[in-house]
Amino acid sequence: xxxxxxxxxxxxxxxxxxxxxxxxxxxxxxxxxxxxxxxxxxxxxxxxxxxxxxxxxxxxxxxxxxxxxxxxxxxxxxxxxxxxxxxxxxxxxxxxxxxxxxxxxxxxxxxxxxxxxxxxxxxxxxxxxxxxxxxxxxxxxxxxxxxxxxxxxxxxxxxxxxxxxxxxxxxxxxxxxxxxxxxxxxxxxxxxxxxxxxxxxxxxxxxxxxxxxxxxxxxxxxxxxxxxxxxxxxxxxxxxxxxxxxxxxxxxxxxxxxxxxxxxxxxxxxxxxxxxxxxxxxxxxxxxxxxxxxxxxxxxxxxxxxxxxxxxxxxxxxxxxxxxxx
Amino acid sequence: xxxxxxxxxxxxxxxxxxxxxxxxxxxxxxxxxxxxxxxxxxxxxxxxxxxxxxxxxxxxxxxxxxxxxxxxxxxxxxxxxxxxxxxxxxxxxxxxxxxxxxxxxxxxxxxxxxxxxxxxxxxxxxxxxxxxxxxxxxxxxxxxxxxxxxxxxxxxxxxxxxxxxxxxxxxxxxxxxxxxxxxxxxxxxxxxxxxxxxxxxxxxxxxxxxxxxxxxxxxxxxxxxxxxxxxxxxxxxxxxxxxxxxxxxxxxxxxxxxxxxxxxxxxxxxxxxxxxxxxxxxxxxxxxxxxxxxxxxxxxxxxxxxxxxxxxxxxxxxxxxxx
Lengths: 326, 323
Ligand SMILES: Cc1ncc(C[n+]2csc(CCOP(=O)(O)OP(=O)(O)O)c2C)c(N)n1
Ligand SMILES: [Mg+2]
Fold this sequence. Notes:
The complex is a heterodimer. Chain A is of the alpha/beta class.
C-alpha cells in the first residue's frame, strides 16, 4: 500500500504530540502537580496514530484508562486535555473526569474509561447507531490485552459479528494487565485468533510499526464502511512506563524493557522519513521544537486556568435536573 | 501492644486464619507477587505460595463466581476486588448467586466466602473508582456487610469474616490503609453485630462507620468547645446491626446524626433513620438528621471532590442544627 508523504508526516506529528504530552504529564505527576492516577501511553503511540489516521471527525472511538494517546490521535486539543489532568474548569470535562475520563463528543471520542472492558459493548452501540442511520461512520474500539478476559469482550464481538456492525476492534497487546503478563492471564499468545469464534477477520500486526497498523485498520475500516462487519486487529506493543505512574514495575526485567525500547516506534518512523527523503533532520528537529512549544502552551493554559466553581459539582448529572448543592 | 497500619491489620487477620486452616486461600487481580493494588497482600505470596495466593485475569464475574463455587464445594475463599466499584461487573454472581443459593436450596448449601472491597473517595480517583456502595449490599438478604475502621478491628473482623459460614462483604476504606493504630498482642475475633462506642457523650449521638468515624471524632472535639457533648458510635458491622447500642445511646442523648460518605439518596443511613423512626421515635427530641455526599458521582477535581464528600465541617453543622 502506498502511503503518501503528507500522511507519513501527519502521523509522525501525532505520534510526537503523544510522546511529548505524555512525557510532560509524567514529569508533572512526579512533581506532584497532577492528582489521582495517570496511565501513560508512552511506547504505544503507533497504535492510536495508525488506527485514527483512517478516521474522519464523525467516526467514533472508545478508549480506555490509558486514553491520552487515543484522544490526541483522534484530534483532541492538548490544552483542554492538560487542563483536565489538573482538574481545571477549562478541561474537557470541566474537571469532573480527570486523566481516566477524557471525552470529546465533537470528535467522536466516546470517552476514556476507568472500567476495564467497558468499551467493547459501547463500541457495538456506536456501530449500531451508524448502521441504523445508514451513515458511513465506523467505530474503533481500543482495548488492552487484559480486557480481553472480561465477558464484555465476547459479548461485544459476538453481537457485532451477527449484526455485521461497522466496528474495528483494536487490541493493544502490551503484554501485561498491570503486573500480570499475558502468559499468566490467558492461554494464547495471539489474541487475533479469537476472531475465529465470531467468524470475522482477525490479524496480528507489529503495533510499533505505524504503517502496519495503518494498513490493517485501513482494510478493516473499508470493510466496515461497506457493511461487511467487524474486524479484530491485535497490535503487539509495549508500555515504556509502569502500569500507572508510581508503579515500581518489579514484574518485568530491565532487559525486556530495553529490548522493547529498541523497537520504539518514534525513532523508527524518523529513520523511515530520513531514509526515504520525506523529511530532513533539520525539519524533524523543527517539528520537535514546534510540538514541544504546543505542550508548554497547553501546560501554561492548564496552570493559568481556574479550579471549577464548587457549585458546578451537582451540574451535568442529568440534562434537566440540578439538585441543590450544599 | 504493637503498632500497625489498617492494611497490615487486614493482612494479619487473613494470615492468622490461613496458618490455621489450609482451606483458606486468596485470589484476585494482582494480589500475588505484586502484593495487591493497595499493598494489602504484600509478602503473602512468598509466605503461602501460588496455590493459596492466586492472581486472576481481569474478570470480576469469574472472581466472585469462583468464590461462590469453591465455597459451595467446601473451601473458604477470600476474593479481592480491586475496587468496590467493580462489584458492578460481577453483580449477578454476588446478588443472584452468592446471596441466594443457600435460601433457594432450602439451606442445603453453605457459602463461607469473603469478598474484600476497597471503597470510598478522597484519592482523586474520580467517578468509577471512588464509590460507597454499602447500601446496595445491605439491601440484599443473604449477604453480611462489615466495615472496620481501625487496624485492631480489621484483624478481629477479618478473622470473624473468614470463620463465618455466610458470604461476608468486607468493605475497606482506601484512605484508611495507611492509618496506624495500636493493636493488642493477642488478637481475638471481633463478633459481627457489635458496635463500638468510640467516645461517650450525653448531648447527641453520631452513628457512623469506616473513615467517617475519624471525621466524627474531630467534629466531636470541635463541638466540645461549644459545650456540646457528643457520643460517637462506630457501627463496624452494617448487617448484622447492633440496634441495641444505637437505641441505648439515643435514649440517653435524645438526638441522633447519621453520617456516611455515601451519596445521600438511597444511602444506608436512610435505612438507619427509618429504623430509628420506627422503633425509637419517642426518644428523639429533634429530627433524625443525616450527613452524606451530594447526589452526584464523585468528581475528579480535588476542590470538587472535597466539596462533594462530607467531612468534619458538615458533621459539625448538622449537629449544631439540632440545638
Ligand atoms: C472492571 C475493572 N477491573 C479492574 C480494573 C483495574 N485495572 C485498571 S487497568 C487494569 C489493567 C488493564 O490491562 P490491559 O487491558 O491490558 O490494559 P493496559 O493497562 O495494559 O493498557 C486493571 C486491572 C478496572 N479499572 N476495571
Ligand atoms: Mg495490557
